[in-house]
Structure formats: structure tokens, C-alpha cells
Amino acid sequence: MAYFLKKKEPEAHQPLFLQPVAEDSEYDDADMEPLDFEAEERERREERYQVLATLGNLVSIVAAVAVILLLSMLLLSLWQWVRQDLLNSFTLLQAGL
């Protein structure tokens, strides 16, 4: 059977959101002010979360610097203790005890 003699199969139903929209020349989006309150609320929430994320980053950086300083002080204290202990050990060895 030739291709052009074949019966056309019925088209499958397309959901409404996938169907093409006809352009209406009378309707202009620029004349309408959007009343999308959900988008405005979403933007406010995003800004609030961005501020909280920035503050969280600041707090974590300050905490990391504090931990680094604390560990540096502990390392310095350990070094001083080892140095003092070695000096005392050599002093005792020289004294013959």
C-alpha cells in the first residue's frame, strides 16, 4: 500500500500546557502589571536565606580562625614544654643524677 493512501491515525491527546498558544495582537504584557504575590514572597524568602547564608559563612569563618589560633597556641605551648623538658633533662644528665 502506498504511503499517501494510508489512513491517518488519530493524533494523541496533548495536555493543555503543551498545546501551542495563538498570539493575540490586542493583548500586550507591557500594559499589565503582574500581580504575582507568590513570586514576590519567594524573592523575599530568597533574600532572607541569602542574608542568613552570608551570616552563617561569617560565623563559620570567625569560628575557624578562633580554632586555628587555639591550636597554634597549643602547639606553641607544647613546643615550649618540650624545650624546657629537654633543658631540664640535659641539666640533670650533666649533674650526674
- Chain-averaged pLDDT: 80
**Low-confidence segments, ≥5 residues, pLDDT <50?**
none
Number of separate strands:
0
* Helix/strand/pairing category: mainly alpha
Order of helices and strands: H
Distance between the termini: 115 Å
Q: Helical amount among residues, as a percent range?
A: 55-70%
Sheet bearing the most strands, described? none
- Radius of gyration, in angstroms, nearest whole number: 38 Å
Given the C-alpha coordinates, what overall shape results? elongated
Q: Helix count, per DSSP?
A: 1
Q: Approximately what portion of the residues adopt beta-strand conformation? A: under 5%
Q: What does this 3D model show about the protein?
A:
This protein has 97 residues and is mostly helical. The protein has a domain at 44-97. The protein is 61% helix and 0% strand. It contains one helix and no strands. The longest helix is centred in the last third of the chain and has 59 residues, at 37-95. The radius of gyration is 38 Å and the shape is elongated. The mean pLDDT is 80.
Key attributes of the depicted protein:
97 residues; mainly alpha; 0% strand; single chain
What does this entry show, briefly?
By secondary structure, the protein is mainly alpha-helical. 61% of the residues lie in helices and 0% in strands.
